Every structure is written in structure tokens, then in C-alpha cells.
Amino acid sequence: MARAPLLQLSGISLTFGGNPVFDGLDLVVQPGDRVALVGRNGSGKSTLMKVMAGLVEPDQGSRIVPPGVTVGYMEQDPDLSAFATLGDYAASQLAEADGYRVEMVAEGLKFRPETPVVTASGGERRRAALAKLLAEAPELMLLDEPTNHLDIQAIEWLEAQLSETRAAFVLISHDRAFLKALTRATLWIDRGEVRRRESGFDGFEEWRETVWTEEDEARHKLERKIKAEAKWAVEGISARRKRNMGRVRALQALRAERASMIRRQGTAAMELESGPTSGKRVIEAKGLEKRFADKVIVRGFDLRVLRGDRVAFVGPNGVGKTTLLKMLVGEVAPDAGTVTLGTSLEIAVFDQTRAQLDPEASLWENMTGDPGMRVSGNSDQVMVRGTPKHVVAYLKDFLFDERQARAPVKSLSGGEKARLLLAKLMAKPSNLLILDEPTNDLDVETLDLLQDILGEYDGTVLLVSHDRDFIDRVATATVALEGDGRATVYPGGWSDYAAQRPQPVAEVARPVKAEGPKLEAKAEPVKAEGLSFTERKRLETLPAIIERLEAEIAKLGEFLSDPDLFTKEPAKFRKASEAMAERQVALAAAEEEWLSLEERA
Known about the structure:
Layout: E1 7-15, E2 20-29, E3 34-38, H1 45-53, E4 60-64, E5 71-73, H2 86-90, H3 100-109, H4 122-136, E6 140-144, H5 152-164, E7 168-172, H6 176-182, E8 185-190, E9 193-197, H7 204-236, H8 245-260, E10 281-292, E11 295-306, E12 310-314, H9 321-328, E13 336-341, E14 347-350, H10 363-368, E15 374-375, E16 378-384, E17 387-390, H11 391-397, H12 402-405, H13 414-426, E18 432-436, H14 444-456, E19 460-464, H15 468-474, E20 477-483, E21 486-491, H16 494-500, E22 512-514, E23 519-521, H17 533-560, H18 565-568, H19 570-600
Parallel strand pairs: 3-7, 3-8, 5-6, 6-7, 12-19, 12-20, 14-18, 18-19
Antiparallel strand pairs: 1-2, 1-4, 8-9, 10-11, 10-13, 15-16, 16-17, 20-21, 22-23
């Protein structure tokens, strides 16, 4: 016998003072559903989740939850004013005998229930809200960005908990790896319409592109039909006025249909401009040591960063990633050791606390009030990579409208604040980017664009992030801070680190190199297998082979991007496609060979 839905929304319409957020929305969540809720920042994901939780009343429609079904919602900014500690809040809806559940969850999420509310950070409050939800164990969990402010270990713990739960859940997250591992269905909010696909996030982007392609084709067909009807109207209407007014009205209806089509929101026009080329050596750190009281951040740490490196710093919250980052750029002095910065450095910093933004000031004031962006004698223009530009026009490049330009920063969502900070960052030329948790709150499309921009950036990037997928896409090397002063460099991104790290971690003791001689860290030496003379020569030549194959693949990709090539010159298209496939196979083999030899070296 079929089980009743856990939650049903019927005919939901909601307007916040302007265009409708939703209109005639129908939605059902069944027992066992594991749903990714995706969409652009500002599309209404959190609003829809609050409607599902019963916290926002729609203008029209109904929300039905069967008797006895419990629905839990993780609040982004919970009101803790009535509680002395985070644990009091997390256990507030539990029977006294069930208080142990909070302790169990708190251990996995790594927060202290005894923390006083008055001293708790925003991240600790959000972890308490997540702990409250998990401890209560409702039949339907609504999770809005649960991985924000969690380190990778806590994210993996949460991933394991959700993978084993019998409860249904709806999940908003920017963390691709998290979404791919957990979801079996996808709800996509796009311009007020909610589409459902009975497949997890893994296939979402391909599905989205298919939908958009079909939309574009339908729009083009409609445009052609309108042009044909308009031509008929101009050329023949006078002779057939009485007889064909119906056709004229049909033309008007076609134009109304075209006007009703809501254009997709574009991606932000983000761009990074490199400053003057830095010296080849960007950072040279030797023998770094740093401690605060009994807590050791690093001990005997060596690191060389060369121009063009992308270095990710990973480890548990509080282990000292940001402190190490600040030591490497000279903001914090080490207790021992030296840091030498290269020549001609122009540093741009993305701070996870958003301290560069004044929450009480407007977006306009935040941009024009920055001395580095101010245009002398002009309060409505900003300097963007050396060129004056109207502040509203520049904000529009980052998907803010004129109304938002005059609104205070504190009215923005987390994703919008991150986008505004990126706008400030990208207005100035730089050759060394410091990105401390840049991925928090950004939607998938903006993360894609940021990744592409970093790939084309000529400078050097130091990155702190808990987003495993983003690290994999960006990093050429990963510095793992593992506690008690241990900091080890691994070539590649998160997946490479996860595959290489020994168990237990305390046995790490191997010199590691990334990108040939470009980035090194030293540890206690161990005996290596060593390479033969022939293998050493092969290791030296492989980087040039890989570079050549990548260049050939790029040229073939550019050639194949011509949309008319297949129809006009099918033979050339076929040969180029075959050549592309051959080179991709050769590149994968060369990279695998390089990794194998480099590991043995």
C-alpha cells in the first residue's frame, strides 16, 4: 500500500512587493525522498524551504502535513536569546532523557554545547541549529546550507549520518561533492518555476543545459513566426483588413507570448586582471614555528610557492589555516623561522569574515568609499582595473540592480555579500590572491565562473576552503594542517590528498613535490624506491609532453567550437573529433605516468 506524502504544497503563490516568487506551485515530498533544492542566489530557495517548514505564509495555496508527521527546519540565524548555552538551545525540544542525543551530534559536528550563547560565533550558532535538528530526528528534515562553517571532517561526518538516515530530507547546498553523494532527486527553481527530476544532483547541470537549449529553440521558433506574421501584416493588411483582423490579433497574441517569456539571468561578468608580473619566487618559508599558549600551529614548516601555483590549505576548524596564511604574507610574525616574499607583489584578499564590507553602508558607499577604487572628485564612479566606471554599471556586472545599489549591505544574502566582496576584489589588479573561504553561500553557477577565472589568472592563488570539489578543480597542491604542528604538502587537490595521506596521519614523513620543482615542503626523510636512469629522464620529459598535448587539445577544442563546422565540413569535423579523442587518451596516460613516477621519486 502506498504511503501518504510527508508534505504537500498545492497552488502556492507568493509575492514580496514585486514580481511573484512563486505562482501556482505544486510540490510533494514522499517518505524516503533525498532531494537537492538548487537554483541561483536570489531565486527563492530559502523562501521555498521556509514555506515548506510553515514559517512563511503564502498569499494563496495550501500546505498539508499529515497528522503525526514531524517536519524539522535548520534555521540559518536562530534566535537563542532565551537560552544560556548552545546545548540548552539544541536540547530545547527534547525530553530530558534524550539529552544525550545532543552530546552525540555535537561530537561529530565539533561544537561545545556548554558554549555560552553570548560568546558564540555565527558559525557556532549554525552548528547548534544543525545539532538541534539532527538530535530531534524528524521524519522530514529541511537543511539550508548545512555545510557552511563546517570543516571537511565534520562535513564527511554529516554526509555519513544523512546517508544512513531513514528520514526524508530536502537539502540546499553549494557543495557539489555533498550533493552528489546524498541526493536522489532534484528540485530546480528557475525564474519562479520549480521543476523536479527523479535523479540526484550528479546529472543536474546536463539536465539544466538541455532545458535551456529547448527553451532557446522554442524562443527562436516563436521569433521566426512573429517575423513572418509581421511581414504579412505590413504587406497585405490594407487589402484584407476586414477579412484578416483575426490574424492580426493572433500576431498580437504571439508578441504577448514573447513578452511573457522571462529571460534567464546571466552570469556575473567577473574578471580578474593580473598586476605586474611577480618574481618567479613568490613565497619562501623556512623553519616556521608558531604557537598560542599550549596550541601549536606549525612546527619546522618549509614551503616554497612559485608564480602560478594554486595552493589550498585544509584542516579542521581552529587548526590554524588562516594564521598560517597570514604568516606567509607577512601579516603575522612567526615565533621562529623566516618568510621571504618575492618581488613586485600586489596582493588582493578575500576575507571569510567579510570585514572589508561595512554592513550599515550601502553597496554604493562600500564601493565608492574604498580609497583604492575612488575616482577623484566623482562620487558615482569607481576605478575598475585602471578605468573609471559608473558604480551602478559595475554592480550590474555582478548581478545587482540599481535598487540594491542604495540598500545597506546588511540586507543582502550571504551569497550576495560574497559576490559584492568579489566585485571589490576584482576591481584591482593583483598578482597574488588570498582567498579565505570564498565558496561559502555562492551558487553553483558563480562557483563555476570563479573556478574558470582562477584557471585563467596569471598570478598565484592561496586558498582556504572546505569545499572538496572546488579544491579539486582549482588546487595544484594541498597543504594539510593535521594538528599538533603537523603541516604537510601534497601534490594535487583534495582527492589527491585523500588518496595519498597515510594512516595514521602521525606517520607522514615523506618529502612531497608538486608541479616538478615549483612547490616543495620538507619533512623527515624516508627511504624511497628510487628511479632508474631511464625513468628519471622520462620524468623530466613528461611535463613538456603534457604541456604539448594540452595545447593541442585546446586548439582542437577551439576549432570544433565552430557551430557550422559539422554541417559545412563533416570530414574535417570527424577528423578533428578523432584527433581530440586520441590526444585526451594520451594526456590521461601521460599524467598517470607522471604521477606514478613522481610518487616513487
